[in-house]
Amino acid sequence: MPLLFSYGTLQQEGVQLATFGRLLAGNPDALVGFAQSVGKIDDPEVVATSGKTHHPIVRRRDNAEDRVQGTAFDVTDAELGHADAYEVDAYQRVLAALASGRQAWVYVDAQMASVT
Q1: Which of 72, 66, 85 is closest to 20 using CA atoms?
Q2: DSSP states of 14-82
Q3: Is the pLDDT of residue 114 over 70?
Q4: What is the pLDDT of residues 2-44, one digit of tens each?
Q5: What is the spatial distance between Cα 95 and Cα 115, in angstroms, rounded to a whole number?
Q6: C-beta separation of 107 from 95 below 8 A
Q7: Residues 52, 63: Cα–Cα separation, whole Å
Q8: Is the pLDDT of residue 84 over 90?
């Protein structure tokens, strides 16, 4: 079963129910070598689902000591597709290392995705 790491709105119960039709099971973890900032969301459907006009976004950093806290969720391949549909074009899904040593899919700044 794939892992999906969330540091933002996919941790919200309402977003999970709207996106996946269920609450996800997960564990706290951290994304290694990334730093978090905030980006404006213009998609009215995503804003309505999350209740927020600004969402966290991460970019890879050269410093392996950088960490972004979040949750690693067990999801199905089909649910990864649902997450792709929820995320706006500013994000791209990539495979990244977590502090636990596991690999997880994570949505990063699409402008920086090629360096991950």
Answers
A1: 85
A2: HHHHHHHSSPPPEEEEEEETEEEEEEE---HHHHHHHS-SEEEEEEE-S-TT-EEEEEEEE--HHHHHH
A3: no
A4: 999 999 999 999 999 999 999 999 999 999 999 998 878 888 8
A5: 12
A6: no
A7: 30
A8: yes
Q: How far apart are the C-alpha atoms of 51 and 27, rounded to whole Å?
A: 24
Whole-angstrom CA distances from 28 to 2, 40, 43, 112 are 16, 26, 28, 25
**Alpha carbon 46 to its chain's center:** 14
Please report the DSSP string for 5-21 in residue order.
EESSGGGSHHHHHHHHS
CA distance 104 to 93: 10
Residues 84-106 have a mean pLDDT of: 94
CA distance linking residue 30 with residue 76, whole number of Å: 21
